Structures are given as structure tokens and as C-alpha cells.
Amino acid sequence: MSTSTATPVTVTVTGAAGQIGYALLFRIASGQLLGADVPVTLNLLEIPQAVKAAEGTAMELDDCAFPLLRGINIYDDAKKAFEGCNVALLVGARPRTKGMERGDLLEANGGIFAPQGKAINDGAADDIRVLVVGNPANTNALIAQHAAPDVPAERFTAMTRLDHNRAIAQLAKKLNVPLTEIKKMTIWGNHSATQYPDLYNAEVGGKIAAEQVDETWLKEEFIPTVAKRGAAIIEARGASSAASAANAAIDHVFDWVNGTPEGDWTSAAIPSDGSYGIPEGIISSFPVVSKNGKWEIVQGLEINEFSRQKIDASVAELLEERDAVKSLGLI
Ligand code: NAD
Ligand code: LMR
Predict the structure, then answer these.
(1) Is the dihedral of CA 287, 291, 296, 299 positive or negative?
(2) Does ipTM exceed 0.95?
(3) Which residue ranges are tagged as binding site for NAD(+)?
(4) Single pTM value for the model
């Protein structure tokens, strides 16, 4: 066993028996989410039909004999699963099925994320941090946040780190440079096909990325490849990205808790404070640094006319989603 005598951090994972859950839980238990000396207790939340599968995953977690894993609890009741929770990874969501309208999808997810937000409000620890992965992630995070009025709004975030990592990987491949040469990448807006990966502020070897690629590639290949990568993975794998999504969730929480490296930033969807003209309150992706356990939006970046249009289009989609959940009484 780990010799750490620290109190374990309680991490609640919803959708624990799903694909992302399977790729995520072992990495959390091995210390990659919070740090190699931080013991964890895992609370797994599933729907009743999937509890048995979650039990199977828990058996495998036991069989890894992870020194940092101090306990596993499995629940089909959100109230119990979020009791005393410090980090909540909201992965389980209602997928869009054939013939389902967007309003139906938002309503179905409201039925998941509003009660989970309330359970977080009522039972989570004071230092609770929430990352929503389940789609539509930004708006699901907004629903959960509104159901948790006693929790500071900034503790509710949604994942665009996968998009951020995808953008870095595509650019590094194009320029045939190590990934570590690329800094200051930003994903703006929604985790959807309208997202805007910004190369006008990103740097490669200290120089502006947009100046090192041709404009046609940037506009006609890079942006759509990153923005539609999720759909391309589904097409190729027959299932949505799981290991890369789990990896991005680990990156997001690790940086949130431990801080982002000096001289760089990352992307996360957090409640807007009105920066860059993005309406206050919506959960939009921004360039962010984490300092003292808090996300801060990187200020003062230049937004050219092209970027402005792309950001505005994605923000318009977020506003439509917000208005739809408002009219459903979910926020
Ligand atoms: P999956 O279908 O394999 O697993 C989802 C799990 O959630 C299932 O086990 C299901 O039983 C569970 N679940 C459903 N409702 C629940 C509830 N109310 N409480 C607890 N658990 C519940 O799906 P997956 O591949 O693991 O993906 C999960 C979600 O993540 C999807 O919405 C997917 O679109 C999304 N996703 C987001 C990103 C991102 O970058 N933000 C990337 C990839 C996938
Ligand atoms: C992704 O970006 O890989 C996912 O959000 C795609 C999806 O619809 O699950």
C-alpha cells in the first residue's frame, strides 16, 4: 500500500460502466488524475441496469492492487454517489438516437444533469470540482450548475481538452515537429462541430502558428478536421472516442488541481465572465490557465476578424442551447 496517510480524495464517476469509464477508472486509481501521492476513493454511479457491469469493473480495479485506491463504492442513486465528493466526472449522458430532435436530447439530459447537480449541491464537499464530459457537454454543465445554486458557479466546467489535444496533434503532424513545440493552443466555444481551434494565437517554436501554415490548409483542413474529429472516430471505430476522451478528462482535472505549466495555457469550457464579448454565464471554451486551483481566462489576446466570426458562430449555438433548456425550465 501507499505510505500516504492523507485523507483520500473522493472521485465520483458517472457512466462508470461505459466505454470512457472503462478507460478512465484505472488511470484515476493509479494516481494520474490528482497526483502520484494522492489516495482516492472511487464512487461509481450507474443506472440500475448497468450496476452489474460496474461491479465487474470494480473487481478488475481490485485486481490491480493499486496502492492509492482506498475504496470503491457503487451506486444507482445520485444522492449517495455525490455525498462528500471532491471531484465529479459526469460522463454518463443520454446519447442522441435516430429521429431524436435536439430539444428531446436536451430534455433527456436535463433529466440526468439537473438531479445530479442537485445531489452535488446538497452533498458534495466544499471544494467540489465538476467536469462534464457527457454530451452536449457545455449545456449539460450549465444545467447541473443551475441545479446547484450553493456551489460557486466556476466549479462547473465542461471538457474541450480533447479538442485542444486533437488540435495540437494535427498541427504537429502537419509541420512535422514534436508536440512539445506547440504552445498556446485555444479551443473557443462549444464542444461541437462549431468549435473554433485558433492558430492565430497558438505558437510553434515560439512563432505564430498561423504564419507557418497556408491559409487554405488552416481554414479548409485543420479547422474541420479538429471540429469533426469526434464524428470521424465514430465512423472509423463504430463507437465514440473513449481512451482519448478519458485521457483528456485526466489532463483537465490534473491541471485544474495542480496548475498549468508556466508559459503555456490550455482550453477548458468554464462559465463566461463576459471576456472576449462572450455573454456572461454560458459555459464556453476559453484559453485558460490554472492558478491556485482555479481556472483563469487568459486576457488580452488579439481576435482577428476571421476568429471573431468563428467564435461568434459557436457562441450563437451555445446561446441557442441555453435558450432551449431555459424554455424547458431546466435553468
Ligand atoms: P457509453 O454509452 O459507453 O457509456 C455511457 C454510460 O453512462 C453507460 O454505461 C450508461 O449506463 C451510463 N448512464 C446513462 N445515464 C446515466 C445516469 N443517469 N447516471 C449514471 N450513468 C448513466 O458512452 P461513452 O462512450 O462512455 O461516452 C459517454 C459520453 O461522453 C457521451 O455523451 C459521449 O458523447 C461523450 N463524449 C464526450 C467527449 C468530449 O470531448 N466532451 C468525448 C467523447 C465522448
Ligand atoms: C468526441 O468529440 O469524440 C465526442 O464528443 C463525439 C461524440 O459525439 O460522442
Answers:
(1) negative
(2) yes
(3) 15-21, 109, 116, 133-135
(4) 0.98
